[in-house]
Specification:
It contains 10 helices and 13 strands. By secondary structure, the protein is α/β, with parallel strands linked by helices. Strands 8-11-9-10-12 form a 5-stranded mixed beta barrel.
Length: 277
């Protein structure tokens, strides 16, 4: 049985909804209270037993690499002070994980970003985390839940949640048969359908586990919505063979790709972690 040991983070997008903040700072480095979004994603992957973090970056994203690296000047400056412990989580991540990076030269869709990461992943099943989908859960994190599900089904898995029908044009949407509680055998996937044409209100969010044949499938899938390489179109090929599971995860997801979702996530995290009373 193949073990999930690698997680791919597509992180080359421009983050235009957060301009001017993202003019010089990657959107993945936007902080939720005191940690950047991508660190929460890495910690979720670590909780799932993953130690190899593969990050697809682009121009202007060096801050991500610098974050998961030693800052000698900063550490010397705060050594012995009460601020030294503030870097404890980041140090632990660096000691337990291996990071690799590659650049996506053109923004041609999530499918293209995942294909760009092929050289970092190789021929093994892997997780995908979109850092601007910030997920919280009691007990096992969302990715941990999905890894356990993969051990049973041994096929691609997408995290799904119910959304209002009028919002289906913002997501990939699935249709399928309920196989067990919160588990669907996906038969159809549509990228950003109009509400009147959506097969359901079950939307894919930014957590995937993908089998390695997805790379060849993406390569052989023609451009879809907006002329981009859509991961939903590639997954449809697997779904037509019964090889995609949709999992209605336990937990809560915040869309930190939007300003409203980002503020909501920040307020929730501050209240739950810093001011629990």
């Amino acid at each position: 049985m193949s073990k999930i040991s690698k997680c791919l983070f597509p992180a080359a997008g421009y983050g235009t909804r957060f301009l001017p903040a993202t003019k010089a700072m990657p959107k993945e480095m936007l902080p939720i209270v005191t940690k950047p979004l991508i660190q929460y994603g890495v910690e979720e992957a670590m909780q799932a037993g993953i130690s190899d973090m593969a990050i697809v970056t682009g121009r202007g994203k060096r801050a991500i690499e610098d974050h998961f690296d030693i800052s000698y000047e900063l550490e010397q400056q705060i050594a012995g002070s009460d601020k030294e412990d503030l870097l404890g989580d980041t140090r632990e991540i660096m000691s337990r994980c291996r990071f690799s990076y590659t650049r996506q030269m053109e923004m041609k869709g999530l499918g293209h970003a995942i294909l760009t990461g092929e050289a970092l992943i190789g021929d093994s099943p892997f997780a995908v985390v979109l850092a601007d989908d910030y997920c919280v859960a009691e007990g096992d994190g969302v990715l941990s839940q999905m890894v356990k599900l993969y051990e049973k089904y041994q096929c691609s898995i997408v995290a799904i949640e119910e959304v209002p029908m009028e919002e289906t044009n913002r997501y990939g949407v699935i249709a399928g048969e309920l196989e067990a509680e919160n588990i669907y055998r996906v038969s159809r996937m549509v990228e950003k359908p109009d509400p009147a044409e959506a097969p359901s209100n079950l939307a894919i969010i930014g957590r995937y586990i993908l089998s390695p044949d997805i790379f060849d499938i993406i390569r052989n899938t023609p451009p879809g919505k907006n002329g981009e390489m859509q991961i939903t179109d590639a997954l449809q090929t697997q779904a037509s063979q019964g090889n995609v599971i949709g999992y209605k995860f336990q937990g809560r997801r915040f869309d930190c790709g939007s300003v409203d979702g980002y503020i909501e996530a920040s307020n929730y995290t501050y209240q739950s972690q810093c001011n629990p009373s």
